Amino acid sequence: MRAAILGARRDMDSLGGMIESVTTGLPVGLGEPVFGSLESDISSGVFSIPSVKGVEFGSGFAGSESTGSQNNDTFVLRDGAVQTRTNNAGGILGGISIGMPLTLRVAFKPASSIPREQPTVDIKSGKDAVLSVKGRHDPCVVPRAPPVVDSVVALVLADHALLGGFIGPVL
User: Fold this and answer.
1) Which of 26, 44, 51, 78 gets the most CB atoms within 10 Å of its CB?
2) For residue 151, which of 31, 2, 19 has the smallest C-alpha distance?
3) pLDDT at res. 54
């Protein structure tokens, strides 16, 4: 990753990438089944972060290529607690937390502000032009993203805990 980012900087370009966020210890019952679902509120918050272009929970897009019997999270009893055998749902079913780890991946686009010359249009003259962004710019925002994503997720979870409607103790 380091070599790829340094290579992009050397080439006056930028890179995108993906990070994963995992939150453990959530109570069962945060969220709502339709409006105010935990997935939609987390997605809304995460999409407010500049450069974010995609969010997936649990098995995400890969789950769309499996069957229901392969992707379903079957329930089991572990140490007196109901849990799921797998976590393909990413800790949320029907918009509500199920007590399993909340897992999501977030995709970031490459930064568009790069020093490499790119074709554009001069709107004053209506003619073709060349754009090159000057100054210091990160060739990749992904290494800075994890604490930002985790903070947004924490804010949304705190909001849902304050809204109530959960089953079980708030941690």
Assistant:
1) 26
2) 19
3) 97
Residues contacting residue 107 through CB under 8 Å, at least 6 positions apart:
16, 17, 18, 52, 53, 54, 55
Cα–Cα distance, 153 to 59 (Å, whole number) = 18
- Categorize the per-residue pLDDT at 163 as very low, low, confident or very high, splitting at 50, 70 and 90: confident
Q: Which residue has tokens 């949320």?
A: 92
The per-residue pLDDT of the chain, averaged, comes to 92
Predicted TM-score (pTM) of the model is 0.88
Contacts (Cβ under 8 Å, ≥6 apart) of 86:
73, 74
For 32-57, what is the mean pLDDT?
A: 95
Sign of the torsion angle spanned by Cα atoms 130, 135, 136, 137: negative
The 8-class DSSP code of residue 136 comes to -
